[in-house]
Amino acid sequence: MIRDLKRVRNIGISAHIDSGKTTLTERILFYTERIHKINEVRGKDGTGAIMDSMELERERGITIASAATYCEWKKNNINIIDTPGHVDFTVEVERSLRVLDGVVLILCSVSGVQSQSITVDQQMKRYKVPCIAYINKCDRSGANPVKVSEQLKDKLGHNSVMLQLPIGLEDKHEGIIDLVSMKANYFEGNNGEKVVIKDIPAEMMADAEIAREEMIDAVSLFSDDLTDAILEEKEITEELIMTAVRTGTIARQMTPVFLGSAYKNKAVQPLMDAVLNYLPSPLDIENEAIDLDNNEETVILESNFDKPTVALAFKLEDGQYGQLTYIRVYQGCINKGDTLINSRNGKKMKAGRLIRMHSAQMEEVDAIPAGHIGAMFGVDCASGDTFVSPQINYTMMAMHVMDPVISLSIVPKDNKAQINMSKALNRFTKEDPTFRTYMDHETGDTIIQGMGELHLEVYVERMKREYDAEVETGQPRVAYRETITRKALFNYTHKKQTGGAGQYGRVAGFIEPCEEEFEFVNKITGGRIPTQYISACEKGFQGCMGKGPKLEFPVTGIKITIDDGAYHAVDSSEMAFQAASRGAFLEGYAKAKSVIKEPIMKVVIETPNEFQGGCMGLINQRRGIIQGSQEEGVMSVIESQVPLSDMFGFSTVLRSATQGKAQFTMEFSTYKQVPQSIAEEIARKKHEEKVQK
After folding, report:
1. Which of 148, 298, 344, 478 has the fewest C-beta atoms lying within 10 Å of its C-beta?
2. Banded pLDDT at 641 (limits 50, 70, 90)
3. How many CA atoms lie within 13 A of 599 on its CB side?
4. pLDDT at residue 57 greater than cutoff 60
5. How far apart, in whole angstroms, are the C-alpha atoms of residue 100 and residue 250?
6. Closest by alpha carbon to 324, among 409, 383, 368?
7. SS3 breakdown of the chain: % helix, strand, coil, rounded to 5?
8. In whole angstroms, what separates CA 305 from the centre of its chain?
9. Distance of alpha carbon 234 from alpha carbon 230, whole angstroms
10. Residue 120 to residue 115: CA distance in whole angstroms
């Protein structure tokens, strides 16, 4: 690993689904001689791209987990993380951006800025990551890179500046014009590995000169030297332009735009030059930590090998050799055998095997210096933990983790599947912070939660393949509740006479609705029920709350007041008053007009303005109530309340209705009464279940 950090770049490749991230990474690895054969994402030979190491990724032709690699270009180290495009795997992008210094944002020259481009852009803003844009697929029918560059301004608010022009588009796409050097670049050879530099074609010279003037005008804002050269009509050198572009890019005030076609092997090498020229090295980025021993003051970390070590674990993987922990070292250097402290729990650990990743392949190294990304084996930690040298107590800011929006019940087919399922769930929940699981005590189901239906589908498939755990999936049952709507009196006597002492207790009072889950009021006077039996009465009433008499759902929102009763000097006991209270509850509940309540979710949809009406229609179809809608630039935010039972499958419907451009968040809000027709349907289903049992 190079110690001269000026020659190191940590970059991510991010974009919407199917924009060509993995294809571009494959070309970069080929041109830097890390691989010697180009494989396609959906390879006919069944091999698939090197960065898609998981069998499922190769089958589906999508990236599921982010993969790290490194390469060398013009004596510079480039650490690359290829990230997924699908919104369901957004945590993979989130944790990658947390540790990267720069990003190549890929856009399709036909589709332009899409929904996941917007999401990735928001994530880059969150971590203040500079980016350059690469407009890919210039060989496709309908390609229009100028329109896409304008969309970068309009939809994402970037100050986009084109540094290249295409030589031909669609099936006539031959190469690019570099506006900095004012030369034409062509890409020859079987895999475009030979870059041929020629003069700009005469018919394009006028357009190129106009575009160069516009480009220089835009980048001169970031360099006084360049501005002076323009005003004094001196020669404008390539170096002046490149310095200005680099300054604007690192400050996140400008996004240089490059063009090409990764699939057709065109203009990938100039993009790699741009990564070196315009994206920051670890020395250009300011990273902060919190000093836990000093009132949580902010400390600026230095990419210095001699300082105490500070590293962040940003991703975990369980492999055949145990847990693999991906780390980014911000300060100091991790050497084999070093003692480190996990600042979250204060545990000491020894750095054992240190690894450099090349997708699923590994290469052992002796040290991971500051500014580099690597991995460690045999470390027990969680995603987002900070490792430090023993003499300091710093912690890094953890990454932003979204709450799951969808859940599914899973049932193992047999005992073997049950054991394997438990192992799989333990591993997946540790690796992926957006994948969660719990046991629903009301229904007895194991529930898995995630970011979307594809997310859960992939994990169920991985359980079958990697753990041989055959599971059946079903919709999780909605956790309904029962309650009452009016006040009702009760007066119940429990009397039981057998040989010897009998049982006797009378409880009278009333039952009524209330805001609390359960409230018990004692208004007994004159010792009609002795004080020692009052707690038994409360216990008896509370015991009835777990399973309602109507449909056996838990009961909520009930206030019970007892104001009369009777006891027997010999036959009364705690057990007798508990039984009397249960009888009194059933008597009062039957008269109090009980109803079923259902969980209502707060649903917030973010959608481009053109789909606002359609999204409101989807909410109305699901018995939802729209509470408000506001436009925020090109996006609309719709707030609503929708019953949980109508939200299953919503993510798929929403994406279909909005070309995949809308996303939603969902959280529990309150319980509300179910309409009569639906209550009857629930009662019918409950009856059928009982009959089947």
Report:
1. 298
2. very high
3. 16
4. no
5. 13
6. 383
7. 30, 35, 35
8. 33
9. 6
10. 9
Asked if the model's pLDDT at residue 357 lies above 80, the reply is no
Pairing verdict, β 160-162 and 255-259: parallel
For 74, the token pair is 């013009």
Q: Residue 67 is inside which H or E element, if any?
A: strand 67-73
Query: Which residues are CB-neighbours of 559 under 8 A, at least 6 positions away?
Result: 511, 512, 513, 514, 516, 518, 519, 520, 521
| In contact, 502 and 496? CB cutoff 8 Å | yes
Q: Where are any strands of DSSP class E within 142-188? A: 160-162, 164-167, 175-178, 183-188
**Residue written as token pair 């004596």:** 75
Higher pLDDT, 148 or 670: 148
CB count, 10 Å around CB of 255? 22
Tell me phi and psi for residue 489, to 5 degrees. Answer: -90, 155
What is the rounded distance in angstroms from the CA atom of residue 460 to the CA atom of residue 474?
12
CA-CA distance, 435 to 437, in Å (whole number)? 7
Least confident of 127-136, 175-184, 548-557: 548-557
Closest CA to 553 of 674, 406, 677, 405: 674
> What residues does 594 pair with on adjacent strands?
484
Q: In 189-200, which positions are buried (b, 16+ CB within 10 angstroms) versus exposed (e)?
A: eeebeebeeeeb
Q: Tell me if 69 sits within 8 A of 357, measured CB to CB.
A: yes
DSSP state for residue 266 in the 8-state scheme: B
The rounded distance, in Å, linking the Cα atoms of 662 and 636 is 9
Mention every residue, 6+ apart, whose C-beta is less than 8 A from residue 33. Answer: none
241 pLDDT more than 70: yes
**What does the block give as tokens for 345?**
């729990």
CB 592, CB 557: distance < 8 Å: no
Residue 338 CB contacts under 8 Å (≥ 6 apart), including other chains: 309, 350, 351, 389
Pick from 249, 223, 222, 5: nearest CA to 105 = 249
- Please name the residues in contact with 511: beta carbons below 8 A apart, sequence gap of 6 or more: 484, 487, 488, 490, 558, 559, 560, 561, 585, 588, 589, 592
Q: Where are the beta strands (DSSP E) in 292-393?
A: 297-301, 310-319, 322-331, 333-335, 339-342, 347-350, 354-358, 361-365, 367-369, 373-377, 386-388
Residue 458 makes CB contacts below 8 A (sequence gap 6+) with: 56, 64, 88
Q: What is the pLDDT of residue 45?
A: 46
CA distance 583 to 569: 21
Cβ atoms within 10 Å, residue 470: 14
Q: Name the residue type at position 530.
A: P
Rg (C-alpha) for the chain, rounded Å, is: 32
